[in-house]
TrEMBL record:
GO terms for biological process: transmembrane transport. This is Choline transporter-like protein. It comes from Theobroma cacao (Cacao). Belongs to the CTL (choline transporter-like) family. It is found in: Cell membrane; Membrane.
Length: 445
């Protein structure tokens, strides 16, 4: 144990020295294959950004020319609802992260109880729109809102612990956090508005090829927003980890510089894997709840699917971003290491019951719904045929805006758990986690 502790400290020396020196502070120990894979993903990410930018410019110009010639597309009725929704998403997301920092208890309750209401309101809006696609979306939204309400009732006893974790882990935000969040949201607003112009240009003609263009733009948007969120996540989690684990106050700006310089490839990989693996794990849990303990044929694959999901989550989970930032590990390796560490510290059941991730997710749904109601209602009034697509795009933009705004808080929580798992005996931690573990053990008994 002493040898392991010394090795760990040696690995951290480059990171702690960041306070005294302005040189790169991340120790590069990746294998040749690992560096190659990261570089490939980094290159792919930059290439798709370049390609989507060229595509958006071309579609925008073509759409405006086509609209002026045929009057089939009305830019003044299509763009304003979406652009206003985009700006609203940035403003509401910033305000919400401020509220959740200063009033975490109220924020948790509001997210779990208001999000279902807003989701149902979105469902009602789509029913009023009346198109076949809108009716399908409206039905899904209403059912989703009911499920969220039932889930909130089920996890209500865990609100107090989620609030405590948020308070403990974010009690001292890293310097410059507000600046980073503000700049990230401004970049996202500009980037979203830019892509919206391209989607509008493709909508102006509406051919089969244009539909493929829109799908490509939306996929690029999703990945890019995930990368922005996780760049902020890696930077903040590294700073907070060094404070929790070593008592070191790290310079956030230099940590961000190191993230951009060395870790973009790993972040791109994680940004692609985590949403997919998280969706698989969530669906596996839902399937297990439905199947229960039955051995009927229809549910015979539930255990198998859960096993696959459990295996995948070991190699692609958000906790791995902490080790990506601290040790410059590849994302898959970092995920596996943090999961192993949680198992050794017997924290798997604890992180499974942690609601902070769900809180961020539901907050994203809430802000997305607000943007949908703003843009969709506007479009419904001025041009009903645009309402469905406008509301969908507005929801995606609002959702990702909020997730980016709350990334720093989720990063602080992750850093807290990872640092605790590495050294549970550290005097820097209070009784929050040990008390919660005892409660879980009593419930199992």
């Amino acid at each position: 144990m002493q040898k392991f502790h010394m090795q760990t400290q040696e690995q951290r020396i480059p990171s702690t020295s960041i306070i005294q020196r302005q040189e790169p502070s991340i120790k590069i120990e990746a294998t040749v294959a690992g560096r190659f894979l990261r570089k490939i993903f980094q290159i792919i990410f930059y290439i798709q950004l370049f390609l989507v930018s060229i595509l958006v410019i071309a579609l925008t110009i073509r759409g405006l020319i086509n609209a002026s010639n045929t009057h089939r597309f009305h830019p003044k009725k299509w763009y304003p609802p979406l652009l206003v929704s985009t700006a609203s998403g940035g403003i509401v997301s910033f305000i919400w992260q401020w509220i959740s920092f200063h009033y975490p208890s109220k924020a948790v309750k509001v997210a779990f109880w208001v999000s279902p209401l807003l989701t149902c309101a979105v469902g009602v809006l789509h029913v009023l729109i009346g198109s076949p696609v809108s009716l399908a979306i409206g039905t899904i939204a209403v059912v989703s809102g009911v499920i969220q309400s039932l889930y909130a009732c089920w996890v209500n006893p865990r609100f107090a612990y989620a609030t405590k974790i948020l308070k403990v882990s974010t009690s001292f935000p890293p310097d410059g956090t507000t600046t980073f969040v503000t700049l990230s949201l401004i970049i996202c607003v500009i980037y979203s508005a830019f892509l919206v112009t391209g989607i509008g240009g493709a909508t102006a003609t509406g051919t089969g090829l244009d539909i493929l263009f829109i799908i490509f733009i939306l996929l690029s948007f999703t990945w890019s927003m995930q990368v922005i969120k996780n760049l902020l996540y890696v930077t903040i989690s590294r700073v907070r980890y060094m404070n929790f684990a070593c008592g070191v106050d790290m310079n956030t700006q230099i940590a961000f510089r190191d993230t951009i310089k060395h870790l973009v490839g790993s972040v791109c990989i994680g940004s692609a894997l985590v949403p997919v693996f998280g969706t698989i794990r969530g669906s596996a849990r839902a399937m297990s709840l439905v199947a229960g303990g039955t051995d009927e044929f229809l549910f015979s694959c539930a255990n198998c699917y859960s096993g696959v999901a459990s295996t995948l989550i070991k190699y692609g989970n958000r906790w791995g971003f902490v080790h990506v930032g601290v040790y410059n590990k590849g994302f898959v390796q970092a995920s596996a290491n943090t999961w192993e560490m949680f198992q050794r510290a017997e924290l798997i059941s604890l992180i499974d019951s942690d609601l902070t991730g769900v809180f961020c997710f539901l907050s994203g749904l809430a802000v997305g719904s607000i943007c949908t109601l703003a843009g969709g209602t506007w479009a419904l009034i001025v041009h009903k045929s645009y309402a469905t697509e406008v509301s969908i795009y507005a929801f995606l933009i609002g959702y990702f805006m909020c997730r980016i705004a709350l990334a720093w808080q989720q990063a602080c929580v992750s850093a807290y758990f990872v640092a605790y798992a590495e050294n549970p005996q550290s005097l820097r931690f209070d009784s929050t986690i040990p008390v919660r573990i005892q409660e879980l053990q009593r419930h199992r008994v």
